Amino acid sequence: MKICVCGIPGIPAGRHNLRDPRLDKAHELVEARKKVHAQVDVVGPEGAMEADAILASPDALTDLVLQDLELVETRLGRDPSAEERTALLELQAHLEAGQPVSTAALGEAAQAAVAAHGFVTGRPVIVAAAGQPADPDALLLRAFAAAGHICFLTVGGPENRAWPIRRGATAAEAAGAIHTALEKGFIRAEVIGFDDLLTFGGDTGAKRAGRQRLEMRHYLVQDYDVMNIRANR
Prior knowledge:
By secondary structure, the chain is an alpha/beta fold. The protein has helices spanning about 20-30, 60-75, 80-95, 110-115, 135-145, 170-180, 180-185, 195-200, 205-210, and strands at about 1-5, 15, 30-35, 40-45, 55, 125, 150-155, 155-165, 185-190, 215, 225-230. It contains nine helices and eleven strands. The strands form three sheets. Strands 2-4-1-5-6 form a five-stranded mixed sheet. A hairpin with a 2-residue loop joins β7 (about 150-155) and β8 (about 155-165). α3 crosses α4 (about 110-115). The chain is elongated, with a radius of gyration of 21 Å.
């Protein structure tokens, strides 16, 4: 996934590890040869339209909002349909209040009427308050979550690893994030909740306590579930 960073120093464009403290904790509890973070791609303002979320300073948010407000005013000047005009006027008031398009409470019909316009703030926008840019890892984690993503873990042996997936992904889809063959041949997932991993001191302790459960392909993966995928090869 891509995160656009606007007006925040210290987060250069390129690929970044998502340094989630939960992976660090799992790595303390479960022996593995290495630790592998989930990753995101960071782009500059020129990549905003392709990004899944935007991280912005307050001043950068103002610039983005003004950009979208200009688009709204341009569309209003082109004699739009009644439905589009109503939606645009709602957005105009929202943007004039300094708020991004993504937080506007438009109805389904209004959303459909303006869906093709490609507002830059139509994706989640996370604003870094004073002092927060000093913790870029936390900001990237916030943007990752705001864009509708979570991680699941595989642990033990070669690596303890966080795998990024979309929130609402099934166990079979999560298997596909590891390898397409695992999704095609999916049998079941052996799952330990992250809280149980902590409570019982690792995956072995959680299993002994009866906290590992078997889930089928349509199970909705929860954030930081520890999963062992069983599949036909």
